[in-house]
Amino acid sequence: MNIKGVMRVISMGVIVLMLSGCWNSRELNDLAIVSGIGIDLVPETNEFKVTFQLVNPSSTATGFGASAGEPSIVIVSATDRTIFGALRKASKRATRQLFFAHTQLVVLGESLARSGINDVFDIFERSHELRLNSAVLVARNNDAASVLKILTAIESLPSLGLVKKTQNTSRVWGENRTIDVFDIINGITGEGDLTINGVSIQGNASEGMKKSNLEQTVSHAGTVMHGLGAFREGKLIYWMKDSEARGTEWLLNRIEETIINIDSVDKKESIAVNIVYSRTKVKIDIQGGLPVFHVSISEEGIVNETDGFVDLSKREEIVKLEQELQEQTGKDVRQALQMAQQMESDIFNFGNELKRSDPQGWASLDKKWGHIFAQGKLDLHVEAYIRSTGMSLKPYHPAPE
Question: Would 72 disulfide with which of 48, 64, 185, 260, CB 3.0-4.6 Å?
């Protein structure tokens, strides 16, 4: 055989190998798509109970509704000393191999969160199967498995519905933010502490697991975003709520939009201002051995509603509203910082900022930062601007006599 014949044979062999397919390919019909993962701690055995929310293909193919014969999800749980062990042990209950490429959500049970989560996410960094951009929530006053079992109206997949709730409330209410696995790992390995969104079950949880719960205009049970869990050294120690949670998001520069109700001359909290822009800048320095937190907040708002007398055609009235906004924002920020200092938990990443800007100063405080952080002073400056008053300037209400 001449050289041309040899090359022809080699070329044909290469083509055959290329057409043989991937060595580790898997058929879709052999996979169970995991949309959500719940991780709980079993106190009696100190084991992990891992719950998987699986997409039910026979239901989602035709959509979830009153006429659908099956729910859109199937719940499978397994218990083991390690999360990976529970993941593999789930094969005893699942008819297909678990597939994690579309996992949207990770829910942590509150008991697990209070015992510590520093070692929980090790598998997410090591495994090529699990996703670092999955959203993370803590089941408040409940276990993660129960949260994953609650069916959600509108969204056929409950895990996707929870992710969208997180994104929606983060965008317009301002007491939460989207937090994923990568954020948690950065918080654990950083110089401060961290916060994670809470989710709770409202109503009868057992009824919320039934398809009949969705066949009426008002559900018997559902999930709702509920506070911001504050962690110290990887353990949940407190639930930040209302103004504390919003103040935390302000200090983290994570406010997209929020609503502030301020007083008119005749009514309490009767003027609704929608904050549509907010930026926070933080600088840390050491004075007299203690940190000073220099925080500057610039925000812009729109008057969306007035339920009391206010003449928005007058510049002096606008100035008063801006001053009220500054005071209310400052109040929320101070409440959040005060609570964090009581817990000696730097949930605002101040330690990371000090380490970046003053490595030598940080070196002297590193080992006792929680205690030093609790003694730090706040230097706060807020600038608020009313950019629009809508299409009406004169109030409907007459001026109070």
Answer: 64
